Amino acid sequence: MILYVELECVFYEGNSLKQKRSLLKKLISKLKNDFNISVAELDYQNLWQRTKIGIVTISNKLVHAEKVIQEVLRVIDSYPELERTITNVERL
Asked: What is the tens place of the pLDDT at every residue in 79-90?
């Protein structure tokens, strides 16, 4: 089972692309290391207040893949510097 998540976030802290990229780099590294998933910034690379992130996980069981994605979203939500605004989950 492949689960794909596309989410948009708004940044409230910081006021530069440098700060946004620093936070995203830290977040993406943490997610990749902790959950063994694929993560990439998909859009809004040149806007410091907004981002779109794609996340993919693969598992032989749907329940496990959903559990991984829920934990990933919990970690993202734990960052006070950003707010998740739109989240789309697809089974592939």
From this structure: 998 999 999 999
